[in-house]
Write a structure and sequence with these properties.
244 residues; alpha/beta; Rossmann fold; 2 domains; 5 helices; 4 strands; disordered C terminus
């Protein structure tokens, strides 16, 4: 909520006083959600979200859902998210602090290119230029490294690992079909085409699960190692910056 008038100011004071009175209770009635029944924003790789003022709230919820899905390795197509936000006064920019991105998904920058563009429209001398607003409230970018990490949708992440997945799966299919012919079809004189077709389909599934699965496991381990190195380097850089 945003404090705009007497009623919202009174509500804010009522809630704040609850810190001193543990017996104070507040009842709320909630309706919704409204709009799309399905998370339509998960069907696009590139998202541009444009908001004004308190209208940033649903977009922060969308961003939070995307980050949780990335952290939990759930299907999530968005890879580039641009949030354009216009506010009247720079004080409103502190709403961004309500979404703690790093605590939700510390390594989101491996798979998500996130950018905020904020605009203050009704301040002749924005206090941002005078250093009166915390740095998190200004425009910020969270670029993704080249290549990106492993995606839950195989093939949308690092190009080398995606290629390795395809090549290894294909090699595994060829090997399985060859061994099947040598040790089963030829010795037992299997001639029924429909039976051979079923065996071939089984080989295809096995090559994806066994050989492709091995690549995905190695991909995931490599991604975790890379993320830890990035976090370690960022921590070291942060200490160096504070000391300077």
């Amino acid at each position: 909520m945003k404090v705009l008038g007497d009623w919202s100011e009174k509500l804010k004071g009522h809630i704040s006083s609850g810190n001193e009175d543990p017996n104070l209770t507040l009842k709320a009635s909630v309706e919704g959600p409204y709009g799309h029944e399905s998370p339509y924003y998960l069907t696009y790789e590139n998202l541009i979200l444009v908001a004004g003022g308190i209208g940033i709230s649903p977009f922060l919820a969308i961003l939070s859902d995307i980050l949780h899905r990335i952290r939990e390795s759930k299907p999530c197509l968005p890879r580039n998210v641009l949030i354009v936000w216009a506010v009247k006064n720079s004080d409103e920019l502190t709403l961004l602090h309500s979404l703690d991105i790093n605590s939700i998904c510390p390594y989101f920058y491996n798979v998500l290119n996130l950018e905020f563009q904020t605009y203050v429209t009704r301040e002749s001398e924005p206090p941002l230029e005078e250093g009166k607003i915390a740095s998190y409230a200004s425009s910020s970018k969270f670029p993704a490294p080249m290549g990106g990490g492993m995606s839950s949708l195989v093939g949308t992440g690092h190009i080398i690992w995606s290629g390795a997945y395809m090549v290894v799966s294909t090699i595994g299919l060829v090997l399985l079909v060859a061994y099947l012919n040598i040790f089963y079809i030829n010795p037992y004189n299997i001639t029924h085409w429909w039976y051979k077709g079923i065996l071939f389909i089984i080989c295809m599934a096995a090559s994806v699960i066994l050989f492709g699965g091995l690549v995905i496991v190695l991909w995931h381990l490599w991604d975790i190692k890379t993320a830890k190195n990035i976090e370690k380097n960022s921590t070291i850089s942060g200490f160096g910056h504070d000391e300077s």
